[in-house]
Amino acid sequence: MRRWCLYVLLSVLFLGFAGANPGRAQQITGTPGSPSATTTIPGEVLPAWPEKFHGSIERNAMQSTPYWPPRIVPPEGVPNILLIMTDDVGFGAPSTFGGVVPTPALDRIARDGLRYTNFHSTSLCSPTRAALITGRNHHSVGFGVIAEQATGYPGYDSIITKDKATIGTILRDNGYRTSWFGKNHNTPSFQASPIGPFDQWPVGMGFEYFYGFMGGDTNQWQPDNLARNTTYIYPFQGNPSYNLTTAMADEAISYMNRVNTLTPDQPFFVYYVPGGTHAPHHPTPEWIKKISDMHLFDEGWNKLRETIFANQKKLGVIPQDAKLTPWPDDLLKTWDELTADEKKMFIRQVDVYAAYLAYTDHEIGRVIQAVEDMGKLDNTLIIYISGDNGGSAEGTLVGTPNEVAMFNGIEVPVEVQLKDFYDVWGSDETYNHMAVAWSWAFDTPFLWTKQIASHFGGIRQGVAISWPKVIKDKGGIRNQFHHVIDIVPTILEATGIAAPKVVEGVPQSPIEGVSMAYTFDAANAEAPSTHRTQYFEMFGNYAIYHDGWIASDKVTRPAWVTFGPANPDPAKADWELYDLSKDWTQADNVADQYPEKVKEMEAIFWQEAAKYQVMPLDASIASRLITPRPSITAGRSEFVWTAPLTGTPNGDAPSVLNASYTFKAEIEVPEGGGDGMLITQGGRFAGYGFYILKGKPVFLWNMVDLERIRWEGEDVLSAGKHVLEFEFNYDGLGIGTLAYNSLSGIGRSGTGVLKVDGKAVATRKMEKTLPLILAWDENLDVGSDTGTPVDDADYQVPFAFTGKIDRITLTIDRPKLSAEDIAKLEAAQRNNKTSE
Question: What InterPro entries does the annotation carry (predicted)?
Answer without folding.
Answer: Alkaline_phosphatase_core_sf, Sulfatase, Sulfatase_CS, Sulfatase_N
